[in-house]
Amino acid sequence: MTFLELTGVQKRFGDVAAVEDFNLAAERGEFVSFLGPSGCGKTTTLRMIAGFELPTHGSIVIDDVDVTHRPPNQRNVGMVFQSYALFPNMTVAGNIGFGLRVRKRPSAQIAKRVSELLALIHLEDRGNRYPYQLSGGQQQRVALARALAFEPQVLLLDEPLSALDAKIRIVLRKEIRTIQRQLGITTVYVTHDQEEALSLSDRVVVMSEGRIEQIGAPADIYNFPATPFVASFVGTLNLLAAKVIDGGEGRISVDGQEIRSAKPITDAHDGSTVTIALRPESIELGEGGGVNRLRGVVEDTSFLGSIVRIRVRLPESQTTLSLDTFNDPNLDPPAIDETVTLSFPREACLVIGSGPAPVVDVVAGA
Amino acid sequence: MTGPAIGPRAPGALESVATSAVTADRPRRNWGSPWAWIIFLIGVLYFTVPLIATFIISMRAKPLFAAYTNSFADPRFFSSLIYSFVIGLITVALSIALIVPTAYWVRLRAPRLRPFVEFITLLPFVIPPVVLVFGLIRAYSRPPLPFTNTDIGSSALLVFAYIVLSLPYMYRSVDSGLRAIDIRTLTEAAQSMGAGWFTILVRIILPNLRVALLSGAFLSLAIVIGEFTMAVYLARPAFGPYLALLGANRTYEPAAVSLISFGVTWLAMIAIALIGRGSRTRIQVGGAH
Q1: Which of A104, A151, A191, B288 has an alpha carbon 20 to 30 Å from A307's alpha carbon atom?
Q2: What pTM does this model have?
């Protein structure tokens, strides 16, 4: 049953459309992430759910109640900010209990709830500290507890881990997911970090330039990107221009070498150019990776720890593509300028759009 | 695997190395250039010579300290000081009630209005107090708002005039205090937890402006306590007119009273510094760790 529903939501700032035609139906207890580059409208959408921005068009419904025009203090939505936003004049306990004090709950009830939440975030002995006496990770835990204290219907998190270092980010990410599952609270999480979005979420909403590019489970988003943008923003992807030889049979030509896609190509006629996407990890060096084969020249190799990334240039079109192989200490990576054969299964070859391979203005994830 | 051989060492070898390293690394004390000291000395003299001269004059009264005992013995000294102090406190309270919500709202919702509001708050520097007070007397000495017809009305008018006079100091203090905290995010955090505007102002914004409010308050108080023009034209028994009267009729007492009021002002400044030092470290909003 839908718990949080955004229908036809649009937000314009003057002539600029920050969010366009945004539709989302989230289930009760679902963890949904908004993923996209800076300026894609993900935070604006979150702020509209919180009530800090009023949609130009559309409606926002929480648990069958239209809250589109309700002020933020009457929505019962908890929010965690990137900058923690703890009240500097209050102790940790004071911060956590603030929402309950505003609701004029009895002192004993507030004290009990604060203790429960301090235990939940493993800061039982820090209740009397001030925010400046805590580390960044601890402050963000307190901010999370504060947002949960008054039992909101929806929890919103606006890039909550961006200001933290990598190790704490991973620990806190797990804690957020554990707490969210434990409490079963409907959660919307904004991030530009694809790893965060994919590892935390039940569903991911990929956004670009104010529009939804794709909504789906993390595995679907990664394995079956619906648009060239999603393909290039989520994970590292090789985008190649290919000529359709026989669309019905899925026969296409890349750099003059014939390969096959798993599915027939229906939206492009024979002889036209389409874009295909290949994940680096689905390509193998040698001929054992699948029925599709491409020959090229090694341009560069990068050692990434457990993985070695090899960049190969296709001779005719001078297009380069990357492939990942596991690091084997007993095997040397191929030499630069060595001619190699790459192979991959038909399923790895995704046709994601007609026309030549687009230049997507994002840094493809690592 | 063999490590480096560790042989016997001469007694005191390591100690001597350590000692010489300490000697070599000891920083030379930098006393600064002589010119800096000369300028500093001129500055010190500029501030202290008038005070010392005032003190010397005040001590010429016979017997010793007579100027001070006479000042304290004069009932008008305390009554005028207390009157000005009370008027000052009311001014500060009303200024805070007027300026904090205004500056907060301008920063949060109408940042484009900031230059305009700043200009308004600077007007007391442009309009002489005598012009302001004559304007007030003309406007409020007849119906429908005949403030000057009663003592309380005149005192209220004085407070309103002082609020205008303290605008530049109070607004700047509050504005710089608001700049030091992320009011937008704190406001949104409080709103998301169900707080209304009044709660946000009283429980979040005001406590975090404590130091800014104190400095604005003490500056306003110092100005109000010594103010002469408005108090005299509104015929109020304030400290400024009392000082002027004393200066016209007595020889040594004005010097004593000046030093006493100077001491009171310095005590207020020290109080700001002490209170400010206690709370400065608590104001930190995210991102620093």
Answers
A1: A191
A2: 0.76
